Amino acid sequence: xxxxxxxxxxxxxxxxxxxxxxxxxxxxxxxxxxxxxxxxxxxxxxxxxxxxxxxxxxxxxxxxxxxxxxxxxxxxxxxxxxxxxxxxxxxxxxxxxxxxxxxxxxxxxxxxxxxxxxxxxxxxxxxxxxxxxxxxxxxxxxxxxxxxxxxxxxxxxxxxxxxxxxxxxxxxxxxxxxxxxxxxxxxxxxxxxxxxxxxxxxxxxxxxxxxxxxxxxxxxxxxxxxxxxxxxxxxxxxxxxxxxxxxxxxxxxxxx
Length: 256
Ligand SMILES: [Zn+2]
What we know:
Layout: H1 3-22, E1 27-36, H2 41-51, E2 57-61, H3 68-76, E3 80-84, H4 108-126, E4 133-134, H5 143-149, E5 156-157, E6 170-171, E7 176-177, E8 179-180, E9 186-187, H6 190-205, E10 212-216, H7 223-237, E11 242-244
Parallel strand pairs: 1-2, 1-10, 1-11, 2-3, 4-5, 5-6, 7-10
Antiparallel strand pairs: 8-9
The structure holds zinc ion.
Zinc ion binds near residues 35, 85, 89 and 137.
């Protein structure tokens, strides 16, 4: 893309952020990255590019496959908050259905037992660093499982989009995915990402200036993906009324 074209898309985003400014509002963002199990060069790259900008990461870790070394890595990089990402990221949906691990395809008790084991293993690995947020694989969770997760000690769930299956628990959703999963997990263009971000900020403005979540998947990023994420983070970090927040700080206590 031509430089001027990219500039044009950031201009739309700037115009939207100016609306927030006019209302005296700071746009809050959080970054969630999914599917970690071990230390890889890509994870180190993500850690470095966010650490230099003071951006916290909610790192969704697959409990059943998580390696001990990841525990040490997280403890030495406090900007990273690991979160339970299902149990083994296994699809239990039928053929032709959307992939789901925490859906209604198995008895709720069975799913919750697995989630409890997942949480205990993650506490063993990460101790008090562990997030109180549950991140369902493929961002899908059955309403009853979501409600039951509260009894296991989870205080919130992080899915995708603005709709949630119930209001029994706090939702800390992401809204902009930098990857196009329908196109072989390729990078979205900077124009697509900034347009989506602008559209979601408009929605957030009408939802009492709600925070907006950005989603990445370090293991599948190609060079273009890294470049786009880098450009986006750089742009946002240079805006006066943008603040990066810890996803756990967004949790709202909901009484039973
Ligand atoms: Zn995942």
